[in-house]
Write a structure and sequence with these properties.
A 9-stranded parallel sheet has the order 7-6-3-2-1-13-12-10-8. By secondary structure, it is of the alpha/beta class. The protein is globular, with a radius of gyration of 19 Å. The chain has a single domain, classed as TIM Barrel, CATH 3.20.20. Its EC number is 3.2.1.52.
């Protein structure tokens, strides 16, 4: 097994993708809007991904709510952005936590229905008024303890629906003044500010998965971004934060990183990430990466197994069943009632 999560090109696996993935088995897959049309198609795609793998695998998606949602209306309902729960927290903290939990449970049921077992949320990045809007309303706020409390409710709600969450973007993206999709952000804040930003991650250090930030934090490493920095991964993420779960990079196709795709994958792996994330679906790139990557490290495979053993992507859960639809409706009704109560 190769330590890469792969994005495929289209709404079905091509014959050349099937052959490649049987020869060099990726550790998992990530899906995007380009891979999705409707429930029937998506269920078949995830079933095919599982059937083409020799082991139980994570199948990931970015389904946060708000502007980040790969499964969209009218097929699937829209969900609120994180900032809505921040607003509710200012009025009624307990209600906000319960609303997040119900919201995340409902999200998980939608994902479980189509065979997806990992959601790339919650963001634990603190909102910064001077930070780039790539975080913006995706953040649960600027207070570390509030963000941690709402983030924990996300993980709990997803788990109730048999989906694993990912805390991101460790050790914190909020202060970045440019979008790391477009360029390499450099954060020059002093240690005491950075230590504030890592507090939500410390509170949720027991999460099973985390995603790194492609950001240079000069106080920790003047030369390499977190995803490329063995110092940040080992000294900050693993030791200071205390995260022991499966650590994956953000997308190695982002413009924050330098080097060709293979170099990027090797660098995040050599720095200490368990998994490199490759999202583009470009066949030549994924083929080169899979051919050149070493096998997954034993400790990384053990962390991966903890995810797949608890959150199996193979499921007979079906939202068309009356009892499952009723559970989904109750989650949505509970969330909406909590918003309504706070507004009165």
């Amino acid at each position: 097994m190769k330590p890469v999560f792969i994005g495929i090109a289209d709404t079905r696996l091509s014959d050349q993708e099937k052959k490649l993935f049987r020869q060099y088995e990726p550790a998992g897959y990530i899906l995007f809007q380009r891979n999705i049309t409707d429930r029937t198609q998506l269920k078949k795609l995830t079933a095919d991904l599982r059937a083409n793998s020799q082991q139980n695998i994570p199948i990931l998606i970015d389904q946060e709510g708000g502007r980040v949602a790969r499964m969209k209306p009218p097929v699937w309902p829209a969900f609120p952005a994180a900032a809505r729960f921040d607003e509710l927290y200012q009025k009624a903290p307990v209600s906000a936590i319960e609303a997040v939990r119900a919201n995340s449970h409902a999200l998980a049921l939608l994902l479980q229905d189509v065979g997806i077992n990992v959601d790339c949320m919650p963001l634990l990045d603190l909102r910064d008024p001077e930070g780039d809007n790539i975080i913006g309303d995706r953040s649960f706020g600027h207070n570390p303890e509030q963000v941690a409390a709402l983030g924990r409710a996300v993980l709990d709600g997803l788990a109730k629906g048999s989906v694993c969450g990912i805390i991101k973007h460790i050790p914190g993206h909020g202060q970045a003044k440019v979008d790391s999709h477009k360029a390499l952000p450099v954060v020059d804040s002093p240690i005491e500010i950075l230590e504030r930003d890592i507090r939500p991650f410390q509170h949720l250090r027991n999460a099973k998965m985390a995603m790194t930030a492609h950001i240079i934090y000069q106080a920790w490493d003047e030369e390499s971004c977190a995803s490329y920095s063995s110092k940040i991964i080992h000294d900050i993420i693993r030791k200071k934060i205390g995260f022991e779960g499966l650590l994956m990079s953000d997308d190695i196709g982002m413009n924050a990183l330098d080097g060709d795709p293979v170099t990027r994958a090797l660098r995040v792996f050599d720095a200490g990430c368990d998994i490199a994330l490759h999202c583009s679906g470009k066949f030549d790139e994924m083929k080169a990466i899979l051919e050149n990557m070493d096998e997954i490290r034993p400790e990384s495979f053990a962390a991966l197994e903890k995810v797949t053993n608890e959150f199996s992507s193979a499921s007979d859960f079906d939202l068309d069943r009356a009892e499952n639809k009723a559970l989904f409706d109750r989650c949505i009704a509970e969330r909406d009632a909590l918003f309504l109560e706070a507004a009165v």
